[in-house]
UniProtKB/TrEMBL annotation:
Pfam families for the chain: ELP6 (PF09807)
Species of the source: Pandion haliaetus
CDD domains per record: Elp6
Localization of this protein: Cytoplasm; Nucleus
Name by which UniProt lists this protein: Elongator complex protein 6
A GO term from the CC aspect: elongator holoenzyme complex
UniProt keyword list: Cytoplasm, Nucleus, tRNA processing
Keyword Nucleus carried by entry: yes
UniProt pathway annotation: tRNA modification; 5-methoxycarbonylmethyl-2-thiouridine-tRNA biosynthesis
Signal peptide: none
Family, per entry: Belongs to the ELP6 family.
GO biological process: tRNA wobble uridine modification
Amino acid sequence: QGKFTLLRDTRTDGSFLVHHFLSFYLRAGCKVCFVALLQSFSHYNIVAQKLGVSLTAAKERGQLVFLEGLKSCLDLLFGEEKQQSGQPSPLQFISESASDLKALFDFVRTSLTPAGSDSWKGPVLLVDDLSVLLSLGATPVAVLDFIHYCRVAVCYQLKGNIVVLVHSNEDSEDEENELIVNSLCHHSDLILWVEGLATGFCKDVHGQIKIIRRVSLELTAEQDLVQIYQYKIQDKNVTFFARGLSAAVL
């Protein structure tokens, strides 16, 4: 509880980690607020069904609060957004001059604040993916402020967890995105960094994952624990193995 996990991908797609955490927390009985900026609800639902979880059922029983970013953006841009219970759209900043993410934070806080009848084990905020907010016009400072306030509300006040995906490319000229990535790395309790193979595409090894446990955050003068594995994505699961020990190689 109270942990901030950063999912970072470079030269590959790390969305399989998002699907894992979404199904994992729903099966664990946690209340999940999913800010989905990259794909539609049906996309996440189809993948979740393969993993044995129904997002539709989770929404109906109030366990999952789903913000479909693609639909909200279109509704805002074409003036079809209907205010629910007098509240502004969570992505209201798109149609305003100031890139203020306060409405999005209020949506997260309201979604995860437990009601009297709630019996969920703990709140979880899941964001896929944070880089999209920059593309929609938010400034890096606004995005970092949003994450900071979410950490205070979810991790410290509600004793929940936050999982955020960001795309990164060390050779990129997108300085704003790299600023976001580097800042989040300094604040994360756990970093799962998925990278494509430096040697290019391989049928039996899809990439490598670097697991960084931020022991240094606990001010114990110890170095961060780093583990590196390679992986292969299959239809319903992912196989991990030590570097160079793929079944195809052996």
